């Protein structure tokens, strides 16, 4: 009977969840002064699809830069929804009207706007340039409630916001070993992030970049339950609690 008690107690302890495996930013109280870069901007990459609209005091002089997607559909002073888009090629360049090929990959959005403005100034005084990444998206996979691809309209998203968009991690998702796959300078990098610790807020992976892939790995409970069924662990936990209570009562 004594060995049975120890065995049941062991099962009970194994089935209990621990805060350190579930809670986010557990040490945030100890690092309450941590600060992140408020002026984060994404860096343009190959295969980014850009919308670039040039504006000026006289809209008519911007016509040669705002080429319509379908020739002949462009009208000055009207909605510019049909403006041509630009795909950054494998050399990091786009072909822009009048000024020709220009390299934008590797630049932040602000730097790209400044570079375009400098090239356009010989033709337009004080041009205003609106540049946006149209295919800014991230993917969230694994132990989350809504895995999938997510298009980001703001061009700025944190890892925690991406997880929230995916419906948060399931109880079986590992918080301490999230994988972020990121492409940089044409090479993929594999990075492990622990969101139970607050120091990741100051890392290069607090803000996600376009086309990042976030993968949440399953914990041991999920891996073990896959061999028996998704509810076996919960069933064992319930039975172990009931058995322990009965054992304690009968001993008295």
From TrEMBL:
Pfam families hit by this protein: Poly_export (PF02563), SLBB_2 (PF22461)
Location in or out of the cell: Cell outer membrane
Residue intervals of the Polysaccharide export protein N-terminal domain: 38-133
Gene3D superfamilies (UniProt xref): wza like domain (3.30.1950.10)
Coiled-coil segments: none
Membrane-spanning segments: 228-249
Membrane topology, record value: Multi-pass membrane protein
PANTHER family in alphabetical order: POLYSACCHARIDE EXPORT PROTEIN GFCE-RELATED
Family of the protein in this entry: Belongs to the BexD/CtrA/VexA family.
Name used for this protein in its record: Polysaccharide biosynthesis/export family protein
Species name: Flavobacterium macrobrachii
